[in-house]
Amino acid sequence: MKFLDDENYKMIRKKFEQPNVFLIFENESDEIRHSNFLKWILDPQERHGVGPYFLSKFVKALDSDDFGSLDQVCVEREKDYIDLLIYNDRSVLVIENKVKGF
Question: What is the pTM of this model?
């Protein structure tokens, strides 16, 4: 796999290998806990107090500028075997969460 030798890829990979909460709490391979966290951080209605901030950054990173209103979004976890389902009246985003690296 040629991209594994790419310097940009190595830089990004190194950035994300920094200590993270899942490694600290020894939950790095617990997919449900990852899904719980993603649901919490991406749901504008959750009590983290930042509204759609993280969801807007996530949608922008996906180049999905036409996702529609983030104020009227619904975020569900483990819905019909979908790890994370994010939708509004205009768009649907499906996330299949995998925790095993390569």
Answer: 0.68
